[in-house]
Design the sequence.
């Protein structure tokens, strides 16, 4: 079964970051994907993101991805609402911060305040 999740425009940089070596592919030309069903329960069979089938909606700028999931039990139906989690790449030198500690500018830029050298507060953006 093909699932088509959408992402905002800022995900364009993924291929550029992969090419520059800033993040590494998880698994060749595919990335693992997981689903949550309409009622919030996890779908037991993992899928894979198909990088070769990425499209852009010119009207909204959204990026539509394709993920392939096994559906031998027929649990996934056309038009069904699901939530997809996709591990697109791994940033080796990243630091995981709680979501509550991150703010976002209107353009989507993430900002965190961190304690730097000499116990001074620094603003970090990504």
Sequence:
């Amino acid at each position: 079964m093909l699932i088509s999740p959408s992402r905002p425009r800022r995900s364009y940089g993924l291929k550029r970051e992969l090419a520059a070596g800033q993040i590494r592919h998880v698994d060749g030309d595919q990335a693992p994907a997981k689903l949550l069903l309409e009622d919030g329960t996890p779908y037991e069979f993992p899928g894979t993101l198909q990088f070769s089938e990425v499209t852009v909606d010119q009207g909204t700028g959204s990026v539509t991805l394709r993920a392939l999931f096994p559906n031998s039990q027929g649990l996934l139906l056309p038009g069904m609402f699901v939530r997809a989690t996709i591990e697109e790449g791994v940033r080796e030198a990243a630091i995981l911060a709680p979501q509550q500690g991150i703010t976002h500018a209107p353009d989507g830029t993430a900002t965190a305040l961190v304690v730097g050298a000499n116990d001074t507060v620094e603003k970090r953006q990504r």
